[in-house]
Automatic annotation (TrEMBL):
Gene Ontology cellular-component annotations: cytoplasm; extracellular exosome; microvesicle
Lineage, highest ranks first: Bacteria, Pseudomonadati, Bacteroidota, Flavobacteriia, Flavobacteriales
Gene for this chain: glyQS
Localization terms from the record: Cytoplasm
Protein name: Glycine--tRNA ligase
Signal is among the record's keywords: no
GO molecular function, one term: ATP binding
Species this protein is from: Poritiphilus flavus
Top-rank lineage group of the source organism: Bacteria
Amino acid sequence: MANQEDIFKKVIAHAKEYGYVVQSSEIYDGLSAVYDYTQNGAELKKNIREYWWKAMVQMHENIVGIDAAIFMHPTTWKASGHVDAFNDPLIDNKDSKKRYRADVLIEDHVAKIEAKIDKEVNKAAKRFGEAFDKEQFLSTNTRVVEYRKKASDILQRMGRSLEAEDLDDVKKLIEELGIVCPVSGSKNWTDVKQFNLMFGTKLGASAETATDLYLRPETAQGIFVNFLNVQKSGRLKIPFGIAQIGKAFRNEIVARQFIFRMREFEQMEMQFFIRPGSQKEWYEKWKETRMKWHLSLGMGEENYRFHDHEKLAHYADAAADIEFKFPFGFKELEGIHSRTDFDLRSHEEYSGKKLQYFDPELNESYVPYVVETSIGLDRMFLAVFSHALQEEELENGSTRTVLRIPAVLAPTKAAVLPLVKKDGLPEIAHKIIADLKWDFNVIYDEKDAVGRRYRRQDAAGTPFCITVDHQTLEDNTVTIRHRDSMEQLRVSIDSLRNHIAAEVDMSAWLKKIDS
């Protein structure tokens, strides 16, 4: 466990050192669970956004995008259920005075059981070598079967208790499992209470006339209230989707694990409107489609898994998470939810306006059902960044730190390095940049020995280094070095654009989704 913590600390330190993420208002000692994306972070975030948008909107003829306001009429949140049901179960430790989410304490306990399973699997894999059958081992090893049953029973009981609002049983479960406060080590817990996560604010020129508003806790409702505007102006036929990327705000009780759980974050959501009764088929289709998008980035199939929800939200008839193996274990990265017709029907009721679709094939009007895909942009950023950060031992015994961000998402695609700061080499390097910058984000780097510059660019995640040397003066060729393999090729300056495009072109990466 300590090893995981050390890895995660390195991720946070590296993000700061290489211009990706820093704590917000750091010069004033920061603001808890609020972060700023600095120069490389802003670029990586932009590239993830674009990769999602192209796959979701540009590649689908029946999906369009919108950008709805953060402020919405307050009745929106009454209709959506957020005013009454957007709560987290809260528990305090009387000795440390620290506040925790009761469900997270229980999930962390289950994660320790899962870590024991991993340990048994790794031990057996070493013992049996190539003959090791992981699936058979998981289903037949007595100790592992016991661990898995225990973990499943705990999560099922928690799900049932939260569903039934039985907060006494949630506390009882924490006590039965012997869960201690991570700070004080004591089991001196308060009762479990519900805590609403929405941030309140005011709209108006004076305190007397101001309207009470909320900062939106999700982007989905902006899609639902605009359902008819978009459908009619776009003359869209069911099935069709509406996508949106935007900020959301939640007053998290325990905001932690760096950018994994923040109070201000960004969501990439798509609501897919369908005929009632077809939701099961579309739910499965979107689970498969979204997993293919993740796998197209080449971060390893073994690092993803589906987790079906034991406890369903008030609006859902099916829900699953795509979980990713973060440095602190498998956690939710994306949710796929079958939301039924809850949202549109509820907004119909509260607004008094019809939100129906006339289906010319059936010759009838109905409130569509919805399948949602929702991914946290910040979590996706953390998945990419934490997976990419690697310490690598080289043949000569030395080590290098390399940030293997998928080339399509890398903030800077190439660094251009003159071998020395004279003999006209910097001028050629600047001319190469002037040519390439129309297509790629490229930088100039002339400080330190060239080997040290390579290491610096490896650690920053730059896929290519282009070195201008004295041979360039003779034959107009340069050395292009690949970050991942460290392979160096001699290529003509004229072919650089094609060489880089072959590795970083978004359409080539997105085509993997259909293959």
